[in-house]
């Protein structure tokens, strides 16, 4: 093999792979193929080094090819590649759940593992519905999402999501779903630094929906603390806390979808920690396993502990959690997420 030969031979045809969220015909006419990655860089099949400015797809938070993660994956697959969690278990699944609970906001003490962010969202919605049912409040069946939101590609996530191109081809989706107004306000917040100063009143849209549907019918509200797929939309100052207060007032479960914001994206373990607002459920994915192998989860409080039990996991997640914790919670992420202007990093002094 010569230095210019790709590590993975190029396929004879690209037709068989139906790529998600991609213009397939255009891509396959001029494909952009990657063959390797290390640290912050991909290597293209033609040998070019490409800066991975999006951490894979917001999932390789610790960078590519980290030796502790590579070693743990190899060792764990050799020792035990799969263990069912129906009436059986694996010790490391319980250890991982403990460590995740320790990173979560106080009160979120239990973890339900899933295999994707989409599955985590649909499961969180089901947990909220089952929670009310178990408490004898089965009339709470309505789910509230938000315009411009992305919550995965399951039917539940698409239903509470607010991106029209993700919804328009799939009929009526789930019934009993409504949406808050989005928080993107370019006219008032275009040149703001940090959290936008205008827009806290948009949280009061939840009160409007409570008046429309009656709060006794609403099971849960789900929002991304920082909207990702719609263009990285920061929450207005005080917005998340006001949502928390309204949910408390009406007995509504508040879900933070932290599939993107979890594990250092904002310089803390979760956006809930960063903004000091505790939801009732957190969905996490992507950075949880640094993109190495599918692993997602839902953090939940103690008072839902009798509703569900989660599947197992493996040792390969632990090195990433160690890297996360040993680096001070990746607090540099908060500054790095700050500002780039004129090619220079602009940071406020402490």
Explain this structure.
With 350 residues, the protein is α/β, with parallel strands linked by helices. It has a domain at 92-330: Aspartate Aminotransferase, domain 2 (3-Layer(aba) Sandwich). 31% of the residues lie in helices and 16% in strands. The protein is built from 13 helices and 12 strands. The strands form 3 sheets. Strands 4-10-9-8-7-5-6 form a 7-stranded mixed β-sheet, sandwiched between helices. It has a 3-stranded antiparallel β-sheet with strand order 1-2-3, with no helix packed on it. Strand 1 (34-38) and strand 2 (41-44) form a beta hairpin. The protein starts with 23 loop residues before the first helix and ends with a strand. The model is unreliable at 305-316 and 331-350 (pLDDT under 50).
Give descriptors for this structure.
alpha/beta; three-stranded antiparallel beta sheet; seven-stranded mixed beta sheet; 13 helices; Aspartate Aminotransferase, domain 2; 12 strands; 350 residues; disordered C terminus
Write the layout of secondary structure elements.
Layout: H1 24-29, E1 34-38, E2 41-44, E3 49-51, H2 55-58, H3 67-79, H4 91-103, E4 108-114, H5 117-134, E5 142-146, H6 155-160, H7 164-167, E6 177-180, H8 186-189, H9 205-213, E7 218-223, H10 239-250, E8 253-257, H11 271-275, E9 281-284, E10 296-301, H12 318-326, H13 332-336, E11 339-341, E12 344-346
Parallel strand pairs: 5-6, 5-7, 7-8, 8-9
Antiparallel strand pairs: 1-2, 2-3, 4-10, 9-10, 11-12
């Amino acid at each position: 093999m010569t230095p210019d030969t790709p590590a993975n031979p190029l396929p004879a045809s690209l037709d068989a792979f139906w790529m998600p969220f991609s213009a397939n015909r255009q891509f396959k006419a001029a494909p952009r193929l990657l063959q390797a990655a290390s640290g912050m860089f991909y290597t293209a099949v033609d040998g070019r080094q490409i800066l991975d400015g999006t951490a894979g797809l917001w999932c390789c938070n610790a960078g590519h090819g980290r030796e502790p993660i590579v070693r743990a994956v190899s060792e764990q697959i050799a020792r035990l590649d799969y263990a069912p969690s129906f009436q059986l278990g694996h010790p490391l699944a319980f250890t991982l759940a403990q460590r995740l609970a320790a990173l979560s906001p106080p009160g979120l003490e239990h973890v339900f593992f899933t295999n994707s962010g989409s599955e985590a969202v649909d499961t969180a919605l089901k947990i909220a519905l089952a929670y009310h049912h178990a408490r004898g409040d089965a009339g709470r069946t309505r789910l509230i999402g938000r315009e411009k939101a992305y919550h995965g590609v399951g039917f539940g996530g698409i239903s509470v999501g607010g991106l029209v191109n993700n919804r328009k081809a799939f009929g009526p989706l789930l019934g009993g779903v409504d949406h808050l107004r989005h928080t993107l306000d370019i006219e008032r917040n275009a040149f703001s630094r940090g959290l936008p100063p205008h827009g806290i009143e948009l949280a009061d849209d939840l009160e409007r929906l409570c008046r429309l549907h009656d709060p006794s019918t609403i099971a849960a509200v789900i929002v991304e603390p920082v909207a990702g797929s719609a263009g990285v939309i920061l929450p207005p100052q005080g917005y998340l806390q006001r949502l928390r207060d309204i949910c408390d007032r009406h007995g509504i479960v508040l879900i933070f979808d932290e599939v993107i914001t979890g594990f250092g994206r904002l310089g803390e373990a979760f956006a809930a920690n960063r903004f000091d607002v505790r939801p009732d459920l957190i969905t996490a994915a992507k950075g949880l396993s640094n993109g190495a192998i599918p692993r997602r989860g839902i953090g939940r409080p103690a008072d839902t502990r009798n509703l569900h039990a989660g599947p197992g996991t493996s040792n390969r997640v632990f090195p990433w959690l160690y890297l996360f914790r040993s680096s001070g919670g990746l607090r540099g992420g908060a500054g790095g997420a700050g500002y780039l202007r004129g090619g220079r990093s602009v940071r406020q002094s402490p």
